[in-house]
């Protein structure tokens, strides 16, 4: 299963979801849904699901029998096995939960599924949604345009890595090599500098940091296309070369500015529509 973990909001409450590319369907964390429908906290929702699950199993309910478990990120940041249900299964589970939110939640689920299928048919819709989401969070138009370009560059890089025999599990290590080479910090160290935990590092880079990171990844892609590396060892060397291009640019800029461009600030802290980066 090719999984893409995501967070969706229903009435400002988080629902952990996973998109399965192969089956083209969403999986929803059952406990999150139960918490919303019953107004319970996490532990209360777990207890409610445990009782409901046992009752449905005794009744011979095939929906519960067929539910999957996937590793999802828990509140403590760790990946834990969690009961999930696809849209059809969740509809049936919701029928067993007396809640005034049941019908609104069903409509929300249908909308989530419909939007994803529409985006698959028309990728521009995914871009439009990303713009809406970033603006809702308060990012400036300039930063958003740069972030979307970085996403395109990142996709070209991962496509090139796939061609070179790199697996998804190795992406993080190669990314770390690139980041460490151009910024002088590992990804973990960089996130610690900005006070980040689970947040995406790129979503918290300033315009300059994002430009340098994009340059590093674009350079890695172009060098890879020229040298055709195969396997992790060869690709790691190319990753370091790509990062060194952005490192040279960073050092030259810092020499002109007389200060480091690696900032502890989060982009959202000082990049808003009315407050552009100086």
Write structural notes for this entry:
By secondary structure, the chain is α+β, with helices and mostly antiparallel strands. It folds into two domains: about 5-120; about 125-270, no CATH class. It is about 60% helix and about 15% strand. The protein contains twelve helices and five strands. It has helices spanning about 30-40, 40-60, 60-65, 85-95, 100-120, 125-135, 140-165, 170-185, 185-195, 205-225, 230-255, 265-270; strands at about 5-10, 15-20, 25-30, 70-75, 80-85. Strands 1-2-3-5-4 form a five-stranded antiparallel beta sheet. Strand 1 (about 5-10) and strand 2 form a beta hairpin. Helix 7 packs parallel to helix 10 (about 205-225), helix 8 crosses helix 10 and helix 10 (about 205-225) packs antiparallel against helix 11. The chain is elongated, with a radius of gyration of 22 Å. The termini are far apart. The model is unreliable at about 115-125 and about 270-278 (pLDDT under 50).
Strand arrangement in the largest pleated sheet: 1-2-3-5-4
First-to-last CA distance: 44 Å
How many domains make up the coordinates? 2
Q: In DSSP terms, counting alpha (H) and pi (I) runs of 4 or more, how many helices?
A: 12
> What is the H/E order?
EEEHHHEEHHHHHHHHH
């Amino acid at each position: 299963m090719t999984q893409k973990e995501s967070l969706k909001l229903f009435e400002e409450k988080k629902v952990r979801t996973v998109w399965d590319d192969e089956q083209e369907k969403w999986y929803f964390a059952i406990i999150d849904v139960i918490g919303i429908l019953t107004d319970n906290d996490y532990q209360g929702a777990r207890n409610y699901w445990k009782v409901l699950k046992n009752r449905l199993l005794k009744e011979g309910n095939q929906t519960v029998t067929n539910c999957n478990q996937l590793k999802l990120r828990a509140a403590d940041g760790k990946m834990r096995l969690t009961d999930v249900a696809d849209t059809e299964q969740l509809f049936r589970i919701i029928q067993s939960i007396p809640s005034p939110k049941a019908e609104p939640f069903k409509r929300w689920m249908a909308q989530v599924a419909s939007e994803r299928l529409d985006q698959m048919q028309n990728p521009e819709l995914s871009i439009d949604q990303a713009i809406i989401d970033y603006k809702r969070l308060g990012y400036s138009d300039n930063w958003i345009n740069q972030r979307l370009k970085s996403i395109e560059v990142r996709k070209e890089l991962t496509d090139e890595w796939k061609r070179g025999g790199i697996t998804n599990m190795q992406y993080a290590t190669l990314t770390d090599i690139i980041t460490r080479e151009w910024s002088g910090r590992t990804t973990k160290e960089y996130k610690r500098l900005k006070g980040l935990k689970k947040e995406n590092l790129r979503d918290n880079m300033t315009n300059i940091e994002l430009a340098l990171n994009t340059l590093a990844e674009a350079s890695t892609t172009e060098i890879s296309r020229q040298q055709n590396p195969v396997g992790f060892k060869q690709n790691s060397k190319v990753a370091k070369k790509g990062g060194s291009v952005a490192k040279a640019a960073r050092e030259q800029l810092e020499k002109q500015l007389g200060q480091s461009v690696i900032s502890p600030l989060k982009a959202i802290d000082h990049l808003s529509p009315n407050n552009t980066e100086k």
